[in-house]
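Quick start: read one record
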Amino acid sequence: MVMFYLIGLGLNERSLGIEALEVCKKADRIYLENYTARFPYNIKSMENIIRREIVQLSRVHTEKADFLVNAKDKDIVLLVYGNPLTATTHTSLILECIEKKIDYKIIHNASIFDAVAETGLQLYKFGKIASIPKWNEKYKPGSFAVVVKENLSIGAHTLLLVDIGLSCTDALNQLKDALKKENLEIDYVYICSRLGTDNKKIICIKLSDNLYEGVKQIEEPFCFVIPAKTHFIEKEFMEKLIRF
């Protein structure tokens, strides 16, 4: 039976499981969605692991889903960083398969949503997730600060994803500005960089006017976590991670 496979890559190039590797080896064509996250490794290294050519898709081609036409008579794979269903685009692909009567299979993997537990913050205490987009002179949306405010009002932590191409320093400055507009003061922010890789980094800084110098060395992909009221075990983790 031919099929469309939506496969999560996990957080590093060695995260593919046995099932996913077997599928990739027999597939007729392997695509990669590469616009929702900055990969912490070279795509060539992934090709060396699966020993197959990977065709990279732009946002336009992924959303158009024209590659799905081939899945009616060929085994087609789409590789996605992290878990394959964390972006709405990928959920739409499954709906497209159902509509066009294309058989499909989802192979899950770890994502940033799992890995942030390394901060010591308890996953069940997280609220809504938001993204920090790259601002320009005419475009400065601050809805992510509203999400932080809503989460804090119910005692929930906030995971803030950061758009590709936005430096850690600039992202922190945007966060400070957006929080100020909401009249919201927070004490600490976790910065999580390249979780799931050998060069992961987790620090907790005080969100003050003089930002911690070490943020200049933070590499993509990275995210922020705004903690709400912490349990004593969460607080112990924070004290060990804190940097001023």
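Helices lie at 18-26, 43-50, 59-64, 88-99, 112-115, 143-153, 168-181, 232-241.
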